[in-house]
Design goal:
The protein is mainly alpha-helical and 447 residues long. Helix 11 runs antiparallel to helix 12. The two termini are 22 Å apart. The relative contact order is 0.12. The mean pLDDT is 86.
């Protein structure tokens, strides 16, 4: 599957996996950014309502998709072991689990969104948009989750280019639909910021259909016959949840930390809140770089672990981290040069631009630490060693990050910069712990 002996050949193999994943992640996040831009141009109230909705929706989606992503190391290791006959059953069990969970979460989100948003204490006009966004989004959870299952299966076979092509089709459809539903074109009512959720749902349904067609017809995929009728096999579920639940906990810890710290921003003025949100949004866009490397590392490292080629797996870890560092340097350089220009993508108010341009310097530091921590998340998943990730994340974010943020923002009153300083310290501790664990435990054990 990955025949490469020299470093040059291994870099080429890794890049063939990485580039499609990177393009997928970048254009996926870009699509979300464009929807945010459109909502902002519709009205500042809709932008605020959409942003609050996204802050609630993102952790929910992350939990579901992260559990499903556990499919990647499981399938990749099976292929590396030469046990491909087990792959169809594993995929089918993931489909059953994702269906059950997505139905439960869809119902709960639809029923509880009014209560949750009301408890946040935000303005009524903003809250109304947030509630609509969440209710619309709850209707699309099932097709979104099923698409992620199919995409994860495709990626686990090393066919990341297919996911990229689907996303290249997804983005223009999503953008056009967002425009139509936000501004009420072609005779449709104006849904404002909440219209983004409708666009996302329809686009994912189309993406699911495309993935379905590929799986049924691609010769390297159709041979697995994953849609052959097979009942629920609970005996396979412990492996799935043993890997998936710690992955979910790690994502939940990260998402909740960002949500908590973002809520702290509500004490500041409008310009500061907008600057924080825009900088966070841009940081998320750049985070696609290390996360893409993380995804590629999971696939290829898991394969070589399955085939017991541990030295080769370690070689790919080094290649992945090196490339991540190179990307972070490039990204940091771009931000340093354009930090006064980037805020204008989100707004033109002088006070907003000044604060946002300063916060972008923190994003540079984030890139550097993420080049290590995010890459190693993928490696730990490949080795199925996901509990240490949860522990290190808890220490970095909750033992260090959140308490420091509270101290700097509410006691020392440093302002929004104190929030970002605390983020940075927490991320630094987390990254150091991840690197230390890999070299002192993983590498030592599998060398």
């Amino acid at each position: 599957m990955y025949n490469a002996t020299t470093t040059k050949e291994q870099i080429i193999v890794f890049m063939k996996l990485l580039v499609p994943v990177l393009i997928y992640q970048m254009i996926s996040y870009s699509s979300g950014m464009i929807g945010t831009f459109m909502a902002g141009h519709y009205s500042s109230t809709d932008l605020a309502g959409l942003s609050m909705g996204v802050n609630i929706w993102t952790p929910i989606l992350s939990i579901l998709t992260t559990l499903v992503a556990a499919l990647v190391p499981i399938v990749s290791q099976l292929i590396g072991k030469g046990e491909e006959e087990q792959v169809p059953t594993k995929v089918r069990q993931f489909i059953y689990i994702s269906l059950i969970l997505s139905i439960i979460i869809a119902v709960l989100l639809n029923l509880s969104s009014d209560y949750v948003v009301t408890k946040l204490g935000i303005r009524d006009d903003i809250a109304a948009i947030t509630i609509k966004f969440l209710k619309y989004q709850s209707l699309g959870i099932i097709p979104i989750t099923l698409y992620v299952v199919l995409r994860s299966f495709i990626d686990s076979l090393g066919l990341t280019r297919i996911s990229m092509i689907i996303m290249l089709i997804y983005v223009p459809i999503s953008i056009v639909l967002s425009y139509i539903f936000i501004f009420g074109k072609f005779g449709l009512p104006e849904f404002g910021g909440a219209g983004v959720a409708i666009a996302i749902n329809i686009t994912y349904i189309i993406s699911f259909i495309m993935a379905l067609i590929v799986i049924l017809n691609h010769p390297k995929i159709s041979k697995y016959k994953i849609f052959k009728l097979e009942g629920v096999k609970v005996s396979h579920w412990p492996e799935i949840f043993k890997l998936g639940i710690p992955m979910i906990i790690a994502v939940a810890l990260e998402s909740f930390m960002f949500s908590v710290l973002s809520l702290m921003v509500s004490k500041f003025d409008t310009a500061t809140i907008a600057a924080h949100q825009s900088s966070l949004n841009f940081s998320g866009f750049l985070y696609a770089l290390p996360m893409s490397i993380s995804g590629a590392l999971t696939i290829i490292v898991a394969y070589h672990i399955g085939s017991k080629e541990y030295k080769v797996a370690d070689k790919y870890v080094k290649i992945g981290v090196f490339i991540s560092i190179v990307f972070s340097i490039i990204g940091a350089t771009v931000i340093a040069i354009l930090n006064r220009k980037i805020p204008y993508l989100y707004g033109t108010d002088p006070s907003f631009v000044n604060i946002a341009s300063q916060l972008l310097y923190f994003v540079i530091a984030f890139l550097i630490f993420d080049s290590f921590s995010a890459s190693l998340i993928g490696v730990m998943r490949a080795y199925k060693k996901v509990i240490p990730t949860c522990i290190f994340m808890f220490i970095g974010f909750y033992v260090v990050g959140v308490p420091l943020a509270y101290y700097l923002v509410f006691i020392r009153e440093v302002g929004v910069y104190g929030l970002w300083i605390s983020w940075l310290f927490g991320l630094a501790i987390y990254a150091i712990l991840m690197v230390t664990y890999y070299f002192r435990v993983i590498k030592k054990k599998y060398s």
